[in-house]
């Protein structure tokens, strides 16, 4: 029987029932629904709204239902309207009239708002754990390759020398910010909507602080209308998840490029690659490509939530049933991507000689060559022009700045001497960049320590 059946004289059609039903996706929240109901029943008993003995029976009955679902003894009825109806119906079947008292001073509106907050709080914890695993892998790799010289790029053109460790720690900073965004969103989400009822609260003498404390919320919502109709936290979390996917997608793009023969900076482990059905030589970075592709799926979930909520008058509307599929999918996709991405990074082989060769061939020490002249007293613009002329001469001679004879240097500027070769050494170029945030080895090691401290 529907919880709202008393008002209606006819049975709902199967088409309407199927269209209206949400149990196919909100059954994910069975644990949180039971957890919230136990807290609600406990509060009702403590406030004297129902008898203590009945409160205890309800709580015990709910725990038995949870155990039965998790053991497989009780199957969730996918013909039920939603998970809330199923659990309350099962409780009533077991306890009779006592089970019917559970819904006192509660509406499905505030019950749903509670369940989704509890569920997403748990989901956030899982994503945070996965992000920390990835950060730990990045720290280990960065530490190992803190002095492995590679070209840094702008416009996908070789620009200045950095190290592979420094490059990896740039992504570590991104994922740290992702952790911070999730933590901030959780703070705003962690308020109790239960007690708002349908939209206008209740005349029963409930104590929302009891329920709030039992469920680990920081406070209760201050406005009953907002309590049942707020889904800002879903949108905010979908935004945070979308940014995680931006970072994973950018990283994937680089992995895909680095795996190609044109770069050949890394090689993925066979366990995280696939082949071609027709070309036997192929080794494809499919995981990275799928992560890059799935970013659009999470962005779509965010767009869905924004679009659903943009035109809804207060308070609850059935449109809001669409919140769950979108935010659940966003979390599921991010977790799936992190689970596959982290071991791919952990097991990849870094081809440091190829990185060093690429760094040597791109004139990425040209700025350091100009700085060498500036330190000797030449104005920067003159030093810049002289170095640019040297680069053109290297291209003409098919060589690089490190191999160019000294007489070629002197022909362009007589301030050059043997010291220029030490000044433009790639290793020196990197390790002289000791300013905070730079790629010097000591900075990379310090950055690794900071990240490890931040993730505990």
Question: What topology does this entry show?
Answer:
Blueprint: H1 14-20, H2 23-26, H3 30-46, H4 52-71, H5 83-95, H6 97-100, H7 108-144, E1 149-154, E2 157-163, H8 164-189, E3 191-192, H9 208-215, E4 219-220, H10 224-229, H11 232-259, E5 266-267, H12 286-309, H13 322-347, E6 349-350, H14 352-360, H15 366-375, H16 380-397, H17 406-412, H18 419-423, H19 426-431, H20 441-455
Parallel strand pairs: 3-4
Antiparallel strand pairs: 1-2, 5-6
Helix pairs in contact: 3-4, 3-7, 3-9, 4-5, 7-8, 7-13, 7-20, 8-11, 8-20, 11-12, 11-13, 12-13, 15-16
Architecture overview:
With about 450 residues, the chain is mainly alpha-helical. The protein folds into three domains: about 20-105, Fumarase/aspartase (N-terminal domain) (Fumarase C, Chain B, domain 1, Orthogonal Bundle), CATH 1.10.275.10; about 115-140 and about 160-205 and about 220-355, Fumarase/aspartase (Central domain) (Fumarase C, Chain A, domain 2), CATH 1.20.200; about 360-455, Fumarase/aspartase (C-terminal domain) (Ribonucleotide Reductase Protein R1, domain 1, Orthogonal Bundle). Helices cover about 65% and strands about 5% of the residues. It is built from 20 helices and six strands. It has helices at about 15-20, 25, 30-45, 50-70, 85-95, 95-100, 110-145, 165-190, 210-215, 225-230, 230-260, 285-310, 320-345, 350-360, 365-375, 380-395, 405-410, 420-425, 425-430, 440-455; strands spanning about 150-155, 155-165, 190, 220, 265, 350. A two-stranded antiparallel sheet has the order 1-2. A hairpin with a 2-residue loop joins strand 1 (about 150-155) and strand 2. Helix 7 (about 110-145) packs antiparallel against helix 20. It is elongated. The two termini are about 50 Å apart. The model has no long low-confidence stretch (mean pLDDT about 90).
